[in-house]
Specification:
heterodimer; A: 270 residues; mainly alpha; elongated; B: mainly alpha; disordered N terminus
C-alpha cells in the first residue's frame, strides 16, 4: 500500500511539474537598473552599519565592539563586491540594448566588463567569516587597487561606448530617412514633378554632414582607447572622449534640420 | 381448486432497481464478451484478479492516474480558446513603412519621424549621468 501511495504522489508531482509553465522573467536594462539601485541601497545600508560599528569601537575599544566592527566590515566588503558586480552587469545590459554599436565595439568592451565581473565575484568568494580586521583592511586595499587600475577605466570606456552607440543609432536612423527622401526625389525627378537642382547641391552638403558624424565617431573610438595609455591621465582621456562625443550632437541636429528642409521643399513642389 | 397467489407472481416479474438492475441487464453482454476472450488471456486475467496483492494497488494507481488526468483537464492551465467569429474576419492592419512616392503620405510619415528623431537628439545625455559609477569609500581602516 505504501508503494501505491508513493507512486501516486510521484505521479501527482510529475503532473504539476509538467503543467507548470516556467515563465522566465525577461532580463532587460530596466530590470538590470532596478537591480543596481537595489544593490546600491544594500551597500549604503551596509556602509552605514560599518561606520556606526567603527565609530562605536573607536569611542570605546572593547573586544565585543571590535568583533562587531569586524563583522560589519566583512559584511560591507562583501556587499560592495556584489554591488560592483551588479553595476557592471547593468552597463553590459545597456550596451546589449544599444543599437548603434557594432560587433567589434561590443566584443571589445564585453571582454573587459566580464573580466571585472569575474574579479568581483571571485573576490567576494574569497572572504572568510573568520578574517581578522587587519586582513579585511588588506583586502579592501586590493579592491581599491583593482578599481583604480582596471574597473574605473572599463567603466569610463563603457560609458563612452554607450553614448557612442546612441549617437550611431541616431545617425543610422537619419540615414534611413535620408535614403527614403532620395528615393522620393528620384521618383519626382523621373515624373517631372521635381527638378534635380537644387537637390544635387543639398545632397552634397548632407553627405558631408554624415561624413563628419562618422569621422567624429571614429575620433571617439581612438580617443577613449588612450585611457589605457600610461602617457595620458585616465580622467583626461575620459573627459576628452566625452567632449568629442558632444560634438556629434550639433552635427546630428544639423543632419536633422537639413532633412526637414529637403522634406519641406519637396512638399512645396507638390 | 388451484388458486394462484397473485401477489407472489407480481413480485417475481418486478424488475430489479438500482445498480443490481443495471448489472443484471449488462450481464448477458459481458458474458458474451467474456466467452469471446481467448483462453490464455482469460487465464491471465483470472490469475491477475485472484492475486489481490497486485490487483488492488494496480487498480488504485490506475484510478488515481485517471482522476489526475480528469482534474488536469478540468483545472489545468488552459490554452486560449479558439473563437470562431460569426462575422467575416476583417483584413489585418499591417504597419509598414509606405513605399516612397513623391506626393503621398510618405512625406508626412517622414516629417513625423524627423520630429521624433529631433526629440531623441535633444534628450541625449552624453555624460550618462544616470549610469555614473557609485561613490565608494575605499578608505577602510581604523
Amino acid at each position: 500500500m505504501k508503494k501505491t501511495v508513493l507512486t501516486t504522489m510521484a505521479l501527482c508531482a510529475l503532473y504539476f511539474v509538467l503543467c507548470t509553465r516556467a515563465q522566465a522573467q525577461t532580463f532587460d536594462f530596466n530590470k538590470a537598473y532596478q537591480d543596481h539601485l537595489y544593490s546600491l541601497t544594500l551597500y549604503n545600508q551596509a556602509y552605514s552599519d560599518y561606520q556606526d560599528a567603527k565609530n562605536s569601537y573607536l569611542a570605546n575599544k572593547t573586544l565585543s565592539l571590535k568583533e562587531d566592527a569586524r563583522q560589519k566590515t566583512l559584511n560591507m566588503l562583501k556587499v560592495r563586491d556584489q554591488m560592483m558586480t551588479v553595476y557592471m552587469q547593468m552597463l553590459k545590459q545597456k550596451i546589449v540594448e544599444d543599437k548603434g554599436l557594432g560587433t567589434d565595439d561590443i566584443n571589445n568592451i564585453f571582454v573587459k566588463i566580464d573580466s571585472e565581473i569575474d574579479w568581483y565575484k571571485s573576490d567576494k568568494e574569497k572572504y572568510n567569516t573568520n578574517d581578522s580586521l587587519e586582513t579585511l583592511f588588506g583586502r579592501s586595499e586590493e579592491a581599491r587597487a583593482r578599481y583604480k587600475t582596471n574597473t574605473l577605466l572599463t567603466i569610463d570606456e563603457a560609458l563612452v561606448d554607450i553614448g557612442l552607440g546612441e549617437e550611431i543609432a541616431l545617425r543610422n536612423k537619419h540615414e534611413a530617412v535620408y535614403s527614403t527622401l532620395k528615393t522620393a526625389i528620384d521618383a519626382g525627378v523621373a515624373t517631372g514633378k521635381l527638378t534635380l537642382n537644387p537637390f544635387n547641391h543639398w545632397l552634397t552638403d548632407i553627405d558631408a554632414t554624415d561624413s563628419m558624424l562618422k569621422q567624429n565617431e571614429s575620433d571617439v573610438r581612438t580617443r577613449i582607447q588612450k585611457i589605457y595609455n600610461q602617457s595620458y591621465s585616465p580622467q583626461g582621456s575620459f573627459e576628452a572622449s566625452i567632449e568629442i562625443l558632444g560634438l556629434g550632437i550639433p552635427q546630428l541636429s544639423q543632419f536633422n534640420k537639413f532633412l526637414v528642409e529637403v522634406l519641406n521643399y519637396i512638399k512645396n513642389q507638390q | 381448486m388451484n388458486i394462484e397467489n397473485p401477489s407472489q407472481d407480481i413480485t417475481q416479474n418486478q424488475p430489479k432497481s438500482g445498480m443490481a438492475g443495471v448489472i443484471e441487464k449488462i450481464k448477458p453482454t459481458l458474458n458474451k464478451i467474456w466467452e469471446r476472450v481467448p483462453v490464455p488471456i482469460k487465464s491471465l486475467l483470472v490469475r491477475f484478479y485472484s492475486n489481490k496483492k497486485i490487483f488492488i494497488p494496480v487498480a488504485v494507481a490506475s484510478g488515481l492516474m485517471f482522476l489526475i488526468i480528469i482534474l488536469g483537464l478540468l483545472f489545468g492551465s488552459k490554452s486560449t480558446p479558439i473563437i470562431i467569429p460569426s462575422k467575416k474576419t476583417p483584413a489585418p492592419f499591417i504597419v509598414t513603412t509606405p513605399e516612397a512616392s513623391p506626393g503621398g503620405d510618405i512625406l508626412t510619415v517622414i516629417g513625423n519621424k524627423l520630429k521624433d528623431l529631433n526629440n531623441q537628439i535633444n534628450a541625449l545625455d552624453i555624460n550618462q549621468n544616470k549610469l555614473k559609477p557609485p561613490t565608494i569609500d575605499y578608505n577602510v581602516s581604523f
